[in-house]
Design brief:
The protein is mainly α. It has two domains: about 110 residues, no CATH class; about 280 residues, no CATH class. Helices cover about 70% and strands about 0% of the residues. The protein has 18 helices and no strands. The longest helix is centred in the first third of the chain and has 32 residues. The protein is globular. The two termini are about 20 Å apart. The mean pLDDT is about 90.
Length: about 475
Amino acid sequence: MVFSSLIFMFLYLPAVLLIYYITPRKFRNAMLLVANLVFYGWGEPVFILLMIFSTVLNYVYGYFIEKFRENKRTTKILLVTAIIINLGVLAFFKYAGMLTDTLNVLPFLNIPDFTIPLPIGISFYTFQTMSYTIDVYRGDTPAQKNIVSFGTYVSLFPQLIAGPIVRYRDVADQLDCRHENIEQFTLGVKRFMIGLGKKVLLANSMGLLWDTLRPDMSTNGALGNWVGIIAYSFQIYFDFSGYSDMACGLGNMFGFEFLKNFNYPYISKSITEFWRRWHISLSTWFRDYVYIPLGGNRKGVVRNIINILIVWGLTGLWHGASYNFILWGLYFGVILLLEKFVLKSFLEKLPNAVKHLYSIVLIIFGWALFYFDDMSQLGTFLASMFDFSNGVLSHDAMVTVLQFLPLLIAAAVASTPLASKLYDKIKNYNWCWIPETAVTALGLLVCTAALVSNSYNPFLYFRF
């Protein structure tokens, strides 16, 4: 992983950028398509054909949906067929093992183990291609006539394997007519470096702290286990938001503008606000393509409750083939229902500090449910967070926590908009480019050194 990361940063990316900018503008999508396929094939060559199949399938369906637009019955059949095929492929690769394990609970069944390697990024590009056919059906965007441009959209390597989920209508104009410039490129470099720093310096460190404390949950002491799950909460945030920042930065370098995927979710004062700030591209996808078509809040309270639970059950299932993910989604769905119908007026009267504490505690419990796929281990860990029989903090856990304390403080500060607000106050000064350049260069040097010396580098969301 270290070797691949360094090859990407110092060989693959510079080479692709150089070739891209010397390629005549009308051939740049074709050049990007080739680069995308090389990038994906680098990690999983056997699944390139699956992504090409998904691309061709949705291109063809989009073309015929637009061609027969006046025939509502035909276009509806085409849309439903496209959705079934897309979801069928996703379910086959992602959920077949979960289904066979569930069915084998029945004593009269003995289905052989059906574990299939999960293609990297399949959840992301499947949702992207589905959004395209749905938007063409709705008339929200015209069908793309150029299959090369459509293939570039589906396989765009900056955000291919871990998002954000980029809807076609948001980048349709950019695919056909984008104007790269030095300001956008410079912004892209800064965003990429911010994301790289989040991942390499913060997410990896918090993951190491969690992995150090987790095996000793029975002896850490209550505080040690709280610190451990807080570290995991920071890890998953900086891991995923870091990748999203890197993807948006890479998009800027190639002339694209992707929508923001995170907006400081850990400063939220309710779970409702948290989900407006966390993984924005996924929550808006489910809102626009599942919740609203189901009727949203337009068909009465009972139907609204059912719709919310369906959406959040599916949100959990999207994250992985394990029942703890479904429970995680429903956990937040129930809290959102309580905030919507029961707690709203009460929460509004609380001091901001109390509302923030309420949100953070619920979020942390959610991440424990997200992490543990074994319910007995989850129960043991949750109990250990309130078990003071081994003291508040064991000696070994205290030594570990003190070693990571500066990074914990850095992670806490970085999860707030403090640095962004400070930057906004100085960014318009003429001399600002000097510290910006110095910090960017220093960040690259430190991150490179961390990559070379640290083997802990997998992105968590690669497996979703």
